[in-house]
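Tokens for chain A. Residues wanted.
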């Protein structure tokens, strides 16, 4: 039986990054993956393929609506070839997953294909046909979409994000249950391609975890893009019959409302996936949400077994899992790493993009922290007008007394990239004045961050 210093179960962003860092630190490392391709949900059926379709559909939308304004005339009709779009997405996924295979080989990490399950705290069975020994194990098995008890995902008409990424046709009417990240991203993809999209959300706002001002602005923009929203609606029934879907929801007045479509995307969140691990054999504890319980070192109640990513508490984000993977690897190497969970950014890859880090205005109010706000609209930027991306704003929240930045919330073009400046500033505990005194290239979208900082510092934004 081969022995490894570290065995990582799961090859998503958390798992494969953890394995690489362990190997870099001189540990003999193995990774166990149940599927034939590496990369987990993110690379295969999540982040990467969804961004591929978002980009493709964005190009189509631009050609249809904005090219002529730029002086680009296209003769004849503009058509969507969904099969080709899906094929390009598949190629991007294949290139990316093969890149992970290369990294495993480069770092001399042994890859075992099969379902890994614990025999005890020293041995892992792989598909009951192979066994490997370990000194330390890291569980990185990720998450799966949540099903509703009355909306069983049949992968045909009632679908999860996985099926939405490989449809054979563009839905005429797509009903989306859930106004969170996945529902909004995939809803926008198919709305651009011609679907009539209706989003049903239980809360009274979309993206409930985001700052209220950002959520309100994003809703306004989506409505302008002809996506329909039904907030404060509780779905009670989903029926699939004769290639059609009937969804029944209860509105805020207790009245039933019916929605009809040809596909229903259920995107009400994800849950930890620990099936097949045989956690009971080693006595690992999970909570009532199915999350594996860990300490501040991400160590389970079994001393030599750790858990990272979506299987433990916290936001289900690839980059959060990566940071945790590195942290565990460095702890095993007797180093002293840290993660500031308050500074893990959140991003929605719609267009315009949405990104945030730190506290929302609502959280600061609940915590009784006195703050000041600086906000700057994207439409006031020369760069935004030049690219016709004028929707959105940058909002900075700073401590009223010390001026330390407590939260940054961006909605606009390239927000996913702009948020890195805010994360950097907050990691070094910068003040709003610090950013306001930094030179920002002109013309760029990033100038909006400086202007918002000026507005927060002395209410003296220069360009509004």
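Reply:
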């Amino acid at each position: 039986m081969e022995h490894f210093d570290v065995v990582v179960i799961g090859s998503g962003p958390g798992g494969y990054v953890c394995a690489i860092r362990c190997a870099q630190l001189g540990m003999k490392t193995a990774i166990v993956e149940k599927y034939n391709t590496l990369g987990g949900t993110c690379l295969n059926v999540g982040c990467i393929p969804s961004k591929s379709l978002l980009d493709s559909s964005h190009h189509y939308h631009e050609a249809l609506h904005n090219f002529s304004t730029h002086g680009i005339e296209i003769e004849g009709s503009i058509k969507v070839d969904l099969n080709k779009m899906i094929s390009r997405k598949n190629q991007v996924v294949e290139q990316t997953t093969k890149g992970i295979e290369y990294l495993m080989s480069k770092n001399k990490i042994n890859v075992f294909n099969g379902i890994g399950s614990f025999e005890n705290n020293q041995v892992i069975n792989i598909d009951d046909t192979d066994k490997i020994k370990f000194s330390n194990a890291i569980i990185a098995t990720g998450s799966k979409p949540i099903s509703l008890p009355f909306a069983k995902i049949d992968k045909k008409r009632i679908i999860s994000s996985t099926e939405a990424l490989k449809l054979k046709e563009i839905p005429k009417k797509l009903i989306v249950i859930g106004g969170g990240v996945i529902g909004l991203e995939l809803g926008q993809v198919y709305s651009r391609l011609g679907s009539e999209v209706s989003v049903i959300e239980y809360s009274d706002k979309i993206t409930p975890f985001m700052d209220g001002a950002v959520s309100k602005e994003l809703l306004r923009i989506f409505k302008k893009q002809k996506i329909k929203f039904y907030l404060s609606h509780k779905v009670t029934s989903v029926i699939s019959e004769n290639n059609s879907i009937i969804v029944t929801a209860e509105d805020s007045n207790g009245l039933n409302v019916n929605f009809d479509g040809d596909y229903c995307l259920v995107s009400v969140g994800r849950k930890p996936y620990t099936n097949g691990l045989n956690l009971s054999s080693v006595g690992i504890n999970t909570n009532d949400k199915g999350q594996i319980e860990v300490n501040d070192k991400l160590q389970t109640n079994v001393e030599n077994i750790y858990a990272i990513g979506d299987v433990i508490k916290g936001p289900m984000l690839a980059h959060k899992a990566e940071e945790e993977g590195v942290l565990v690897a460095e702890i095993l190497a007797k180093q002293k790493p840290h993660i500031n969970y308050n500074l893990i950014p959140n991003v929605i890859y719609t267009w315009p993009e949405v990104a945030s880090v730190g506290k929302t205005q609502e959280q600061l109010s609940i915590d009784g922290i006195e703050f000041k706000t600086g906000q700057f609209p994207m439409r006031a930027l020369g760069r935004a007008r030049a690219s016709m991306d004028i929707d959105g704003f940058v909002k900075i929240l700073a401590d009223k007394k010390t001026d330390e930045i407590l939260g940054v919330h961006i909605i606009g073009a390239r927000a996913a990239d702009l948020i890195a400046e805010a994360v950097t500033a907050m990691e070094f505990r910068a003040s709003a004045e610090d950013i306001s005194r930094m030179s920002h290239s002109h013309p760029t979208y990033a100038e909006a961050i400086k202007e918002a900082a000026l507005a927060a510092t002395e209410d003296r934004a220069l360009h509004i």
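The first helix runs from residue 13 to 24. The two ends are 69 Å apart (CA to CA).
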